[in-house]
Amino acid sequence: MQEPIPILRQRRPLLRFVFIRLFYSFLTVLAIATATFLLMKAIPGDPFQDEQAIPEECLKALRAYYGLEDPLIMQYFRYVLSVITFDFGPSLKYSSQTVNAIIYNGFPVSFVLGCEALFFAIPLGIFVGIFSAIYHNSTFDKISRIGTAITLSAPSFLIATTLQFFLAFYIPIFPIARFDTPMHTFLPAITLAIGPATVIAKLLRASAIEVLHQPYMLTAKMKGLSPFRITTVHLLKNSLLPVLSYLGPVTTNIFVGSFVVERIFAIPGLGQWLILSVLNRDYPVIGGLTLFYSMLLLAIHTIIDIIHTYLDPRIQLHEHLS
Amino acid sequence: MRLFLCVLSIFALTLSCTKDPHKATKNSAPKATIRLALNENFTTCDPRRARSICTINLIKNTFEGLTRYTIDGKIEYALADDIIISPDGKTYTITLRPAKWSDGKELTAHDFEFSWKSSLNPATRAPNAYQLFVIKNAKSAYEGKCHPDTIGIVAIDNRTLEITLENPTAHFLELLAFHPFFPVAKHYFEDSPLFEEANPKEMPVNGPFMIKEWHPNLEFSVIKNPNYREALSVTLDQVVYTFLDDSTALQMFEKGELDWTGAPTANIPIDAIQTLRKEKKLQSSQVAITQFIRCNTANPYLNNVKLRKALSLAFDRRGITDHALQSGFQPATSFVPPSAGLLNNSYFPERDTAQAKKLYQEAMEELKITRPSLSLIYTSSEESNKVAQVLQQSIKEALNCDITLEPLEAKMFFERLSKHNYTLAFGRWSADFYDPISFLSIFESKNNGTNNTDWENSSYTALLQEANHITNTTERKECLEKAQKILMNDLPIIPLFFRTSNYLQGARIKNISVQPLGIVEFRHVKLVE
After folding, report:
1. Is the dihedral of CA B484, B490, B492, B494 positive or negative?
2. Alpha carbons A197 and A243: distance in angstroms, whole number
3. Helix (H, G, I), strand (E, B) or coil at A65
4. Which of B18, B420, B429 to mutate to test the interface with A (most CBs of A within 10 A)?
5. For labelling, which of A194, A206, B101, B435 has a CA lying 20 to 30 Å from the CA of B207?
6. How far apart are the C-alpha atoms of A293 and A269, rounded to whole Å?
7. Which of residues 135-164 of A touch B (CB under 8 A)?
8. Can you count the helices (H) and strands (E) in chain B?
9. Which 8-state DSSP code applies to residue A66?
10. Interface check B198 vs A, CB under 8 A
11. What angle in degrees, to the nearest 10, is found between the helix axes of B473-490 and B458-469?
């Protein structure tokens, strides 16, 4: 006789999956927190040092105020507690700003820009990838392959400044910088979208060419299905899996923000904070933003895994846990 | 189709969230508003904690001290109505003008006493507290050796402040214009812990402007302070500092979206300076900032003064200023900039390769080596990279000596500098107040934390201390010149060039300039539409 299946596993596989993922994510976050703490302490450089020295007493007071004089183990436990409570205290350099306020103010900006960038990148990448595959070795395919090679090679600051010069300064279609109105978001969103769109197009092209050679594609054609239905239901759905795997980390990167894009277009997102905190050795901000990034990445990976199972019924949720 | 409409509506909803709730709309901005570019966040609104030139610019527009600088760099009384100096030059009795804080409360002498004494408590974390050590018992109290009540700052009554100095200090009136000597509101701070940072929008100020918006990495703004004692003479309503990349700021200025870019709160991209100068758009002001090379005199090679002199004479200063940077900087053959008022501003030629070779040969013979192992550390930036390459090239040409270039991240650079783990290092010093002692005092002792060259000279130190006691301006300048002569003779630091402030000023702004200390004050500004 077959063993009875536990209730949760029987009726709510998704719920079970989410709970177990949460538990593993918590352990992962703690491991990342430990690694971050060790790296922060390992990198040379003092957050309070400058060309003009400050009095020794002031330096001691500063270090004592931020707990940097305490034994390392105490600093570590204090950091772990701040991770659990998600309260990292004030920035070392900008002491009127707390880390939570930095995330609260910066993340929505980076998120909005990231959503817009994905809105451009995903359809564009899918369109170019699918049609390059369907008409592979055609003129369209050749042009798109040259285009993707160029856009993959060009650094983001070059793309950003080129777009800014031609579409905002030379021909003033868009504003030059800042984040005031929807029109201000187009150029930075396009800059952020170009890289991911290129990679999506390349991945999709390779995957779609493989799917096109599958026997069921010929069957679908012989059945008399319309080209639109063949492309969307059979070709696209079966080609998207590699793209989904790529979307996880790239979505997180886009949502957290790009230092270069934010700097050039004066976007008050999280990307600038992330880089500047390392340059300034601003430990609370480094710790807070790294953990936030990790949590975001883990959450997005969980969502991507769930979407995987809907796209490909052969993949079961419990397989993602093993 | 339904999926497409759903995605489109989500997109539209997302875009509608782009309006920054903190930003004042164009329609609600006051009429007399100017917009400036800012490439570095303000770190604090508290004058006791300000350190960078960028933040000091904000402080100078939101606070006012007992004295201040005029538009042409002279000292005048500000909050001080009258200053009586005792015959021995140690006691200053200052009568204050009637003035208010931005919250309407009266500004009194007790605010000054509170502010300076709190700066002298290490818990306040005031990095410039050492500037107050000219006051009697200030240093001892700071080090915990005596009670704060013995510090020579006493508020006799609401309008009278008595300051007792350790020694007569000829430049004390200049010091009073310096931000560590600004008052903070006692009624706002006295019940808070000393270490707590003030809320920028709530903290009372006494200057021409007060803080309205404080958004790091986005925008800061100040509006006119109606309770400023000279509010009627301030015509500007608002100053907005927008956080921008230097190239983006230049583009926005050329499109008319900014009224000011460049010094002191941003930079003009180096490659654009020459074109802007040709188009007669660029403005320049002399500022009291010297760029130099630090020599680690504890290094066995650089311990030799002939080698240091040889390097100094071999450096191509004109090549840096006129070709590499083209920013209007001037080659430096002294440490104190000419604008600081000393008579002798040239202690050696800009470049003399023949003499450099001769001194180099002598140094090699004394050291019994054929070639020294030298490296130059600096903070990596567009400007520093160019300067370093010119220096490396000029030494190679003149002396056939190799210098290894080590561009470093800022914190790494300061770490190596403070540990004296270098041979040659870039350095830059800007005057805190408009007096040569502001430059010369950084080498007064080798352990003062800023020197970092391991060089010390008892005659030099004695001359600086003597200058502090001299009240006659001419005699004092002669004393300081003797001190500078010793410094330039020993060359623990090799001056390279004096900086200039380059900026772009919008056509509608009048009555403004970058002061020699690198400060831009907006209280005089008039707007022409």
Report:
1. positive
2. 10
3. helix
4. B18
5. B435
6. 13
7. 161, 164
8. 16, 19
9. T
10. yes
11. 170
Are B241 and B38 spatial neighbours (Cβ–Cβ below 8 Å)?
Answer: yes
- Cβ atoms of B174 and B202 closer than 8 Å: no
Facing B18 at nearest CB: one of A112, A168, A281: A112
Q: Provide the residue type at A297 as one letter.
A: L
Determine the length of chain B.
529
- How far apart are alpha carbons B53 and A213 in whole angstroms? 66
Distance CA B208, CA B65 (A): 12
Return the biggest CA–CA distance within chain A. Answer: 84
Residue with tokens 């538009």: B71
What's the predicted TM-score (pTM) here? 0.86
User: How many residue pairs bridge chain A and chain B with CB atoms within 8 Å of each other?
Assistant: 155
Contact A61 B125 (CB under 8 A): yes
Name the DSSP letter for residue A98. B
Tokens at B124, concatenated: 């306040």
* Closest by Cα among B204, B428, B245 to B329: B428
Per residue in B73-107, pLDDT tens? 789 999 999 999 999 999 999 999 999 999 999 99
Taking a contact as any Cβ pair under 8 Å apart, which residues of chain B between 232 and 251 contact chain A?
242-245, 247-248, 251
DSSP A105-162: HHHHHHHHHHHHHHHHHHHHHHHHHHHHHHTTTSHHHHHHHHHHHHHHHS-HHHHHHH
Evaluate the CA torsion angle A179, A185, A190, A193 in order and state its sign.
positive
Q: Which amino acid is at B213?
A: E
Chain A residues in contact with B130 by the CB 8 A cut-off are 55
Judge whether B165 and B133 are in contact, CB under 8 Å: no
Q: Give the residue among B184, B138, B131, B152 at the shortest CA–CA distance from B433.
A: B131
Q: Do A49 and B415 touch (CB under 8 A)?
A: yes
Q: What are the residues whose beta carbons fall under 8 Å from the beta carbon of B387, sequence distance 6 or more?
A: B291, B320, B324, B325, B378, B426, B496
Q: Which contacts qualify for A24-30: CB closer than 8 Å, 24 or more apart?
A: A24/A321, A25/A295, A25/A298, A25/A299, A25/A302, A28/A294, A28/A298, A29/A83, A29/A291, A29/A294, A29/A295, A29/A298, A30/A80, A30/A83
Tokens of B318: 């004109």
Return the H-helix or E-strand segment holding B306.
helix B305-314
Q: What is the ipTM of this complex?
A: 0.83
Among residues A132, A116, A125, the alpha carbon closest in space to that of A261 is found at A116
Strand partners, B295: B424
Tell whether the model's pLDDT for residue A7 goes beyond 70. no
The model's pLDDT over B193-209, given as tens digits with 9 standing for 90+, comes to 877 788 999 999 999 99
Give the Cα separation of B215 and B213 in Å (integer).
6
Q: How far is CA B419 from the centre of its chain?
A: 23
User: Taking 70 as the threshold, does the pLDDT of residue A4 lie above it?
Assistant: no
CA–CA dist A201, A121 (Å, integer): 9
Tokens of B350: 């800009």
Backbone phi, psi, residue B291, to 5°: -100, 135
Q: What distance in Å separates residue A165's CA from the closest CA in chain B?
A: 8
Beta-carbon separation of A268 and B23 below 8 A: no
- Which structure tokens are listed for B120? 């002298």
- Measured between CB atoms, does A57 come within 8 Å of chain B? yes
pLDDT score, position A93: 86
Asked if A244 contacts A238 with a C-beta cutoff of 8 angstroms, the reply is: no
B178: which 2 tokens? Answer: 């310096």
Give the model confidence (pLDDT) of B416-435 as tens digits: 998 999 999 999 998 888 78
Q: What are residue B160's phi and psi, to 5 degrees?
A: -130, 130
Give residue B337's identity as a one-letter amino acid code: P
